[in-house]
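--- STAGE predict ---
source: upstream dedup step, 1 unique chain passed
mode: sequence only
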Amino acid sequence: MNTADRANTAERVRRINPSPSTAAAQRVRELKSQGLTILDLTVGEPDFDTPDHVKAAAIRAIEAGETKYTPVNGTPALRAAIAGKLRERHGLEFTDARITVGGGAKQVIFLALMATLDEGDEVIVPAPYWVSYPDMVRANDGTPVVVDCPEADGFKLMPERLAAAITERTRWVVLNTPGNPTGSAYTSGELHALARVLMEHPHVRVLTDEIYDEIWYGDEDTPSLATVEPRLSERVFLTNGVSKTYAMTGWRIGYGVGPTDLVAAINTLQSQTSSCPSSVSQAAAAAALTGPQDFVRDTVRVYRARRDATVKLINDVPRLSCTVPDGGFYLLVNCQGTIGQLTPDGSRIDNDEDFARYLLDSRQVAVIHGAAYGAPGYFRISFATSTDVLTEACERIATACAALTSAPSAVPSA
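--- STAGE serialize ---
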């Protein structure tokens, strides 16, 4: 941004960055437009089409003239579908006054922060984190307090780290489970342990981002903090949507459920921004939540097979390793063994961004560097693509790693 642009741009814009995942996807599109064949492992969206019965519901809505403004907090049919889904999945009961619907879970999270943060307020963000959390906090005058959650802890926030991070200015703790970029999910016992800390700090709310909760590989349903500790129910804002589970990323429907005062504030903000989500998309989302769930079960089986195959392929590559994700469709790959190595043209790999660039330039494999997620020394792979693409990409990654050589040791001076 040049000086003139900065002078004409609000401070809230200057203190945030464009989404690294969006930038990576744009770079892939540019290279493809140049005729290059890129194996793209950056995209965080299902490679399946939206289920037919969901598309049919949207068509029926259009034909029935359901193309007007809806209530700010969503159509009655969609709110009923959301309440039914949460009742069935978590045993939770939510009235209309506790449900808000937005243009994707991302918008709902942003509005929740906008509704609650003043300058200097703090939001605890466990790292690795979804790239947008810190910048959404900054955009709304808050201060992200990033808490490192190392691989040795399963990339999860431990109670002692949470307790140490809370101050009198803490307004929120963000819990993304299963998480992006790690796929790690909290067990009921781990959520209980965090809840015990939170019970000692009644001024702190918890934003649970559960957008990947049904892309899940465990035998039991993913636990939710709101279920694990009912005494926190007035302090938990649970967000979710239809984008990942039902391959509806472009339909842009997300929702949040939580305290009535917070939901009312979010609805007020939405009334002055987008007015309401798309009426047609809401009809489709209601059909997704209430209709047949075979699509979810079938796609999760495919994701699981891809996960298992890709984990094995990556762990067979010298200098790389990864843990097995509990949910979602990402691997966070440890590439610290490549740091300090030399590429065939003599360039030194100094960090994970250098390694990601090396994969793209030398082998046309696109990944996202881990520092973008608060995880330097790692990179993220999305396995929401075909097994053939994943297999070839991992072979190219192995070839790229095999071509690295150790930098010569410095010769001591006489």
